[in-house]
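About this split. The held-out portion is used to measure sequence recovery: a designer receives only the structure tokens and must propose an amino acid at every position. Recovery is the fraction of positions where the proposal matches the reference. Here is one held-out target exactly as it appears in the evaluation file.
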């Protein structure tokens, strides 16, 4: 069974027409079992403001206060997750909405004192495998908990990576607003450990893209078939990303 973990962010996560087209792409791929991982930071920030809670970010990462954590749970694991389950049903998929807390899909630890922002420390894919074996389409919000049951907000990229690695997925697909890893304005179609190291040294890969591609290289070294980074503009783009005609594919190389 081919397993593909798809993480959505950016406009695809917020524009329903694109999300619906992506789900239709998944529904037409009979040989692949998909898992969808989503965030929803913009909606969390907006909802928190309505409750008088100001969102804080440290180096681009949300510093989730205990007060904001309640909003994160309500928006991500509640509103957005259930909207996606209903969209999946309209596309013909048997969606099941989950959070990282369910059956300990992934647990973690807080990154700093006083924050509910966390990092993954363990995964348990037993429930996911059971759902996939029974024709279900897991849709996962990345709220989770510590091993003692305290709430955590996990970065969606990190959660998707942890799940794909634990499942040894055929591919992990990051869909966002960027078309792929760029070099002089052109998408680099394929990368591996050696070329990633060379492009980082040359400065082509820089800033926030460095940890993303480095973690992708680590994932393929640990059994994920490939990691794909790219954008989604129209129906059919998922299959273009998977076939290598769109986006950047990071694969294993000796």
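Reference sequence for scoring:
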């Amino acid at each position: 069974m081919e397993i593909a973990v798809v993480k959505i962010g950016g406009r695809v996560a917020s524009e329903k027409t694109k999300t619906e087209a992506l789900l239709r792409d998944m529904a037409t791929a009979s040989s692949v079992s998909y898992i969808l991982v989503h965030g929803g930071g913009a909606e969390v920030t907006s909802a928190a403001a309505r409750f008088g809670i100001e969102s804080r970010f440290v180096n681009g990462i949300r510093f989730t206060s205990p007060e904001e954590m309640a909003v994160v749970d309500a928006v991500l694991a509640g509103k957005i997750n259930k909207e996606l389950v209903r969209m999946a049903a309209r596309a013909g998929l048997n969606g099941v909405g989950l959070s990282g807390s369910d059956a300990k899909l992934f647990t973690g630890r807080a990154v700093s004192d006083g924050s509910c922002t966390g990092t993954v420390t363990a995964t348990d894919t037993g429930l996911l495998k059971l759902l996939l074996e029974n024709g279900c389409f897991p849709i996962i919000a990345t709220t989770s908990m510590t091993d003692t049951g305290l709430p955590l907000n996990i970065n969606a990229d990190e959660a998707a990576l942890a799940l794909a690695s634990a499942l040894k997925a055929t591919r992990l697909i990051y869909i966002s607003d960027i078309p792929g890893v760029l070099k002089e304005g052109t998408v680099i179609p394929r990368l591996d450990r050696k070329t990633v190291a060379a492009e980082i040294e040359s400065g082509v890969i820089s800033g926030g893209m460095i940890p993303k591609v480095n973690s992708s290289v680590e994932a393929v070294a640990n059994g994920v078939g490939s990691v794909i980074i790219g954008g989604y503009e129209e129906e059919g783009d998922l299959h273009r990303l998977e076939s290598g005609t769109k986006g950047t594919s990071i694969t294993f190389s000796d």
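Annotator remark: The CA atoms of residues 107 and 148 lie 9 Å apart.
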